Amino acid sequence: MKEIKLIVYDFDGVMTDNHVFVDENGKETVMVNRGDGWGVNMIRALGIRQVIISTEVNPVVEKRANKLKLDVIHGVEDKRITVIKYCEQEGIDLQDVMYIGNDLNDYEAMNVVGVKGVPADAEPEVKKIADWVSSKNGGDGVVRDLARTLSEVASV
Predict the structure, then answer these.
(1) CB 51 within 8 A of CB 9
(2) Whether 61 contacts 20, CB under 8 Å
(3) Which domains does the chain have, with CATH numbers?
(4) Which of 6, 64, 93, 142 is the most exposed place for a label (fewest CB within 10 A)?
């Protein structure tokens, strides 16, 4: 994990608990963990880039990414191709990338990167290929937990 140059986050199920609230007008809202904001900053201080890649087109993904000052690519159909293209464009070797995902639509993208991470409550198929499993469930501080792990690795 010492060589990680980029972390790719799925949004729903990693930064959220995978629940969505829908009001009578069809407006969707989600709940995020403020501790993850600190985690993003801690990881940024380690010199590691971060990006959110999501299949959702809900503006909440972009709003959260903007608040955290993260790049975001949303409305993605194929996360694997998106990760590959993003890394080519940014000059980052896929082996230096960690992908944090929780569900089957993350599986193929996770298989092209060097390090795979999941929340504690990730789907079993995805959890099986993980190199790092958070002690936290999605939306409960996964990014903060990762930041602690990376800080410990960096100090060794």
Answers:
(1) yes
(2) no
(3) 6-155 (3.40.50.1000)
(4) 93
